[in-house]
Description:
With 182 residues, the protein is an alpha+beta fold. It has 2 domains: 3-90, D-amino Acid Aminotransferase, Chain A, domain 1; 110-176. It is 31% helix and 36% strand. The strands form 2 sheets. It has a 5-stranded antiparallel β-sheet. The longest helix has 22 residues, at 36-57. The protein is elongated and about 80 Å long.
Amino acid sequence: MAEEKQFSSGLVIAAGYANKIRRTLLAQTRPLGVDPKEAVRVSALINQHLFNIFREKGIEKQDVVRVRFRYIVENGKINVDWDSLTIEHYKKHTVLENLPPPEHGLEDVIENVRELEWDENVFKALKAESEEVEKEDNKWVIRGKNWIAEAYEGEKIVVKYTGTLGDFGDWLRKIVGWKEEE
Length: 182
């Protein structure tokens, strides 16, 4: 009984495509009862063909490729569908070096501000965590240990938190659950 399979190398640096194809083909065909020598033989044929294509198309060693093709396993033999062979080629554009550190680290104490859509549950959670709640004109001002929230009923909630970015994220998830918006 013949079984058709799809091969994809995943993204790989062109210099390492041969090992990736051999290892992946061995892993895919072993459960199908293919002798490892057959998988190595077929991967060598594929790799020779790809080597020629890469040279012809000017694919360099540091470029990235993804190789895909279909093949059929029948009676322990691998038959490659050469018409299905596709190569995605990604050229090395630039290398980014000497990048500046983030403006604020996770441990730097800064004021974090987040505007959220109105949510009754978030409003109740803020009130429950608060030390002080006031109503001023058309907004609620809710204060906590190191945060203040201005809630405009039915519109939005603006949260200002003073602390580390990591603590702010933890606190915000606790208050709003996983509804946090970027």
